[in-house]
Amino acid sequence: MQLTIVGCSGSFPGPDSAASCYLIEADGFRLLIDLGSGALGAVQRYVSLYEIDAVCLSHLHADHCLDLCDYSVARSFHPDGPKPPIPVYAPAGAAERLGRALAASPAAGAGPGSHDPGGITGTFSFATLTPGPMEIGPLRVTAAHVNHPVETFGFRLEHAGRSLAYSADTGPTDELVGLARDADVLLCEASFVEPAGAGAPPLPENLHLTGRQAAEHAKRAGVGQLVLTHLVPWNDRGRTLDEAGQAFTGPLSLAASGLGFTLE
């Protein structure tokens, strides 16, 4: 199983990375986890848009899903004709939400009448995520709700005895610890830095993690390696890494666009 980080910028694209997007490859099968703002351009550095077999969206915030609209256009208007639909695994309401974003008129929905003649449901076959295991190509994927203001799923991907866990966007939650239990790699968000000083305002609750909190989850789960992602451009990444290193003593790194990991 191969992981390529396409985009790892938190909340909006940064100067050196698109928003969230991760390419998973196994036995020739290619799965995109999230397709956030700016990611469709970046993903073409690593794979043809027409060699992607499926997409899995953790939640419906723009920095994790909005480029699916552009991808719909790319699949619908190819010079050789429309490409066949591929599956998109997403929270409930994804087709309607993204169909309206794609539509030429706010009154248009997911079907014909949008900028995409077939509508987004003509380009993709949507499947509604629910907690629990499923098979996506050769991958066993387990989805679990995490702690975010909208319905959000973290994922555990398993193949050939190896495992990768992805936090998506989340505040502190035991669900992430269970999902990542003994995983080879935990790709975990670290959007916040710890408040600086006693007079600093507290962090919002049930929204995101600091590097320290991500590391504490990784330690509790017993993961082999921790990769911090969803790195907001205005934060000091060195500080994020230092905070995580105080709680996790295993292999630790920051995500970066183009960084790859082979789990074998």
Structural write-up:
- With 264 residues, this protein is of the alpha/beta class.
- Helices cover 22% and strands 29% of the residues.
- The protein is built from 8 helices and 15 strands.
- A hairpin with a 2-residue loop joins β10 (153-159) and β11.
- The longest helix has 11 residues, at 211-221.
- Mean pLDDT is 94; it is low at 112-117.
What are the key terms here?
7-stranded mixed β-sheet, alpha/beta, 8-stranded mixed β-sheet, single chain, 264 residues
How are the secondary structure elements laid out?
Blueprint (H helix, E strand, L loop, with lengths): L1 E8 L8 E2 L1 E6 L2 E7 L3 H5 L10 E3 L5 H4 L1 H10 L9 E5 L3 H9 L17 H4 E5 L3 E5 L2 E7 L7 E7 L2 E5 L7 H6 L5 E5 L21 H11 L3 E5 L7 H9 L6 E3 L5 E3 L2
Parallel strand pairs: 1-2, 4-5, 5-6, 6-7, 11-12, 12-13, 13-14
Antiparallel strand pairs: 1-3, 1-15, 3-4, 8-9, 9-10, 10-11
Largest sheet: 8 strands, mixed
CATH class identity = Alpha Beta
N- and C-termini, Cα separation:
7 Å
Quickly give the structural class: alpha/beta
Number of E strands: 15
- From the coordinates shown, what is the CATH architecture? 4-Layer Sandwich
CATH homologous superfamily classification: Ribonuclease Z/Hydroxyacylglutathione hydrolase-like
What would the principal axes of the Cα set say about the shape? globular
Overall mean pLDDT: 94
Rg from alpha-carbon coordinates: 18 Å
Q: What percentage of the residues does DSSP assign to strands (E)?
A: 25-35%
Oligomerization: single chain
* Distinct helical segment count: 8
Kindly identify the CATH topology.
Answer: Metallo-beta-lactamase, Chain A
